[in-house]
Amino acid sequence: MTKKSLSRRILKWFAIFFILVSMGVLISGYFLYTYLSVDLPDIKTLHNVQYQIPLSIYTKDNLLIAQFGEKKRVPINIEDVPKQLINAFLASEDDSFFEHEGVDFKGLIRASLHLALTGKKIQGGSTITMQVTRNFLLSSEKTYTRKLKEIMLALAMEREYSKNQILEFYLNQIFMGHRAYGIAAAAQVYYGKSLNELTLAEQAMIAGLPKAPSTYNPITNESRAIQRRNYVLHRMMELNNITQQEYENASKEPSTAKVQPVSLEISAPYLAEMVRQKILELYGEQAYTSGFKVYTSISGPLQTAANKALENTLHAYDERHGYRSKHPSIINNDTLFGNMPVIGDTLPAHVLRVNNNRATAKLQDKTVIEIPWENIKWAGNAIGSILKTGDIIRVRQLRNKTWALTQIPRVEGAFVSLNPTNGAILALTGGFDFARNKYNRATQSKRQPGSGFKPIIYTTALEQGYTTASIINDAPIVIDTPGQENEWRPENYNKKFYGPTSLRTALTYSRNIISIRLLNEMGVDKAVSTAMRFGFTKEQLPKTLSLALGSGDATPLQMAQVYATFANGGFLVKPYFIDRIESEDGEIIYQAKPKIACPSCDSNQESNHIYATRIIAPRINFLMNSLLRDVVQRGTATGAKVLDRQDLAGKTGTTNEQRDAWFNGYTQSNVATAWIGFDDFSPLGNRETGGVAALPMWVEFMQTALKGMPETTLEVPEGIAKAFIDPATGMLTPETNKNGIWEFFQAELAPKSFALPSNKSIRDYDQSNEKPTEELF
């Protein structure tokens, strides 16, 4: 056999071997493809991609209150991404993205050869399209099978979607560190900016993160992050995306990244937690990732006003009871000072110098502030005895922008405001600082309502035939309660007794003895029945005469609901705080439909509204409003007269030993309850009544809530009579009587005869020309 024929035979067998091997590879590849294709995910599901987006909560005026969810993500459209940011990602991750068909075969071969020669895997050959398939459709396991699936899916994806669609998937899904997913979230987390606000250096920094979000993180590993950023910038220069000068300028910039707080637009953490719990109850854990947008009933301006009113009121109480802070020194305490938290509206500061009329201090952010003596003197008689250089103190900024010495109040408070027409919660705060104590006193704190409960007693009395002019003796009373060792000898707040007193005067000045005698005459069961119409439960209402002084329990939110009935014409409305819920794509999946209080509406007529239940007759409600307006104009709540309005009504509340101080007040457009007290039920102290401790919170809030709101008149319903009476007797009196007053009555209960002054007889009246003065409406 010649050499030539031998070479031919070898070539022939080699060709046969190659064909057989190729056929084997093709057949094996076919069966492998068929095997892998069986459980390949359907790439068409990305047409309806659902990103994991946190739960967002807003005010009714579209201000962000809170976000809940492990992943921070803000989906964006590819058209909204700056071109240079896209160039940065392509330079970093896949510079041939717009040329290949989904797979970089050169890169795969290079990685395969490196594995064959060294036995070590290297990153490479994974295109943006392959990363999309991995992030959306496959598990995170690192196996050869998964890599093959990536390739198959990437090729299919390039046939199904455009390059821009694939790039949009990628930029919205990639993990960027610090719980940020997608580029928009990364811009907010690291720089507090929108994509359009990023500098070239910041764009490159973000584009360098996907390769290793921990290793190249600008917050936890700044030096490595800058190296990676500069690599991205250099690749951009090589690809002619930027000039040499732009590269040099950007690569010299220091890193400015730091974890940014979520950019909340309004502070309502207690309300946000109420929403979170409700949404979790309705939708389960998926609520944290489904991109729900919850629009609450909260008004942004009113919530801000409520926050400040509560803070200022608690500080005012605290300052009345003295300065107690013990100052650590800044010497050897730099770490202590730097780690001190902001609590409520109080900021840590250290004193730089002190002179006779002011102190100079530095905040944690290095800002130097001046504290005038005017804002320090509440703490003592001499500035030198209060502060010294080096002290670590707390300060707050007042409404006039000056700084004041302060301390963290020990006392707590709550405030809630409702729309009395439908029960919408307009503002709510449950304490001084949610981060320090998450207990929501507006909804969870069950406290004795004190004299704030008396309007329910008086409502019952008017329904039982008493009038606002009915006379009850304000005199000592001894109550023997079965099962109690000692007799109960109730007193008025000032420990005085006033003798025969009208119901109007008694409620105006919150006379305890009158309420007790009134309840005793009517029977406790009747008052309990009335209270239950207002929304109270039997468990909240002790069946003893102490109920007259508000010895049951109620939350501030419940007390606001009670007074909403007086404000809206006599209807029971149910408080609510979620107005609507929208899905990620804006579809409304829940819309509140509250029952409406409408005195002039016919509930039997067809309407788009559902009407609330009337629980007080119009005439009774009118009389109660007349009484409660007097509390503000002449009684225990005259502090509210600074608002210079005639349509304010309400009732103060103070419990035994001043453990609770309340003010429940309203106009026809807004009802609000303010409460102040200690969580451990310690007494507030002498003279810390509802009118002193709680009313200022309500007044400050109403200065905002009623701004620009016209006053409303109290419309007199049919069946009300107006008569000129002697308040000492409740009987008619001539208009010449200087002590006489005009009083309202249910027409059938209006007095028909004159009172008899000591110097006149019935005959004198019969022979006089003086007539009873009475008007009927």
**Portion of residues within helices:** 25-40%
Q: What percent of residues are in strands?
A: 15-25%
Low-pLDDT residue spans: 29-33, 758-774
Radius of gyration: 38 Å
Total number of helices: 22
Describe the main β-sheet briefly: 5 strands, mixed
* Strand order of the biggest β-sheet: 2-1-5-16-17
Structural class by sheet pairing and helices: alpha+beta
Mean pLDDT: 88
Distance between the termini: 136 Å
Instruction: Count every beta strand, where a strand is a DSSP E run of 2 or more residues.
Output: 27
Write out key terms for the chains shown.
single chain; 27 strands; 777 residues; five-stranded antiparallel sheet; five-stranded mixed sheet; 16% strand; alpha+beta; 22 helices
Task: Please tell me about this protein's structure.
The protein is of the alpha+beta class. The protein is 36% helix and 16% strand. Strands 2-1-5-16-17 form a 5-stranded mixed sheet, with helices on one face. Strands 8-7-6-9-10 form a 5-stranded antiparallel sheet, with no helix packed on it. The radius of gyration is 38 Å and the shape is elongated. Mean pLDDT is 88; it is low at 29-33 and 758-774.
